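ugh ok fine here u go
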Amino acid sequence: MTALLVFTGLNVVLVSTITPVYDFVCFHPYWERRRERRRQQREAALGKELLADR
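structure:
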């Protein structure tokens, strides 16, 4: 019975902490900078492709 209570308590703690951890990992400034850098690279490549077609 004790093991079941410890297991349940641990799961409650983990479930309650998953949202802040997820938000921290997914919305960390590194990922925002990476998304912006990749967007700029795609736009630059598309611009070069359009110029080459002319």
